[in-house]
Amino acid sequence: MARWLASVGIRENSRVLDLGCGKGAVAIEVARATGCVVTGVDAFEPFVMSCRGLAAVKGVGSRCDFRVGLAERFRAEPFDAVVLLNLFPFERAIPIARRLVRPGGFYLIDDAVAIGTEHSSLPTAEEVGEAIGANGDRVERRKVWTRAEVRARESRNYALLRSNARALMKAAPKNRALLTECLARMKAGIADLTAEIRPACWLVRRGRR
Questions:
Q1: pLDDT, tens digit, for every residue of 18-32?
Q2: Residue 17's beta-bridge partner residues?
Q3: CA angle, corner 154, sides to 106 and 28, nearest 5?
């Protein structure tokens, strides 16, 4: 994500907004890679506190402003770029991003897309592109993960979660059933994302209107 933003001119004098910033990994890497000023917003206060500490450790504390808040209600002067990852489906992400990015600026969104037409409840990557274009915006970069890429990434995530879950089970045996169910759901989700559903991401230049 940082490389994508750098490739379209996000740099030291740019302002970037990361909505739903989580623990700050993307926001902090964007600040480090481009030298820009990043505002991160998340509804979960412990994540925001973690972001502030990590930004200081990574040497970008002065260029990162992390706040507690809801993405839908956030108001500010338009940014040069807006990042909404792992937060909303595209039909909700697009209008929120457009409201907060300046004309000619950029927004990054992601979503799950259908490979083929079997999953009518999910859009195809092409349909998302058409929705973006209908607003007068232009797709600069698009990434749809391959089955092998998803399997490799999610397998790493699952291994980490399983290790953490086992440690928690040992520390609090009463939570074993809940943690076992969480792991089972994670595995089922991986199966879905390596079949007819794939994660995808778009870097979009907002139109002038």
A1: 999 999 999 999 999
A2: 39, 82
A3: 40
Q: Do residues 75 and 166 share a domain?
A: no
Q: Is 121 exposed, middle or buried (0-12, 13-18, 19+ CB in 10 A)?
A: exposed
Residue bearing tokens 């002067």: 77
DSSP string for residues in 102-140: EEEEEEEEEEEEESSSS-TTS--HHHHHHHHHHTT-EEE
CB 74 within 8 A of CB 53: no
Tell the residue number behind the tokens 């079997």, with chain if given.
118
Confidence of residue 116 (pLDDT cuts 50, 70, 90): confident
Q: For residue 193, what are the CA distances in angstroms to 84, 97, 186?
A: 20, 25, 11
- Number of other CB atoms surrounding residue 146 within 10 Å: 11
Q: What is the pLDDT of residues 52-80, one digit of tens each?
A: 999 999 999 999 999 999 999 999 999 99
CATH of the domain at 119: 3.40.50.150
Euclidean distance between the first and final Cα of the chain, in Å?
25
Mean pLDDT of 33-37: 96
Reported pTM: 0.86
Q: How far is 84 from 95, CA to CA, in rounded Å?
A: 11
The number of domains in the chain is 2
Query: Whole-angstrom Cα distance, residue 18 to residue 38?
Result: 7
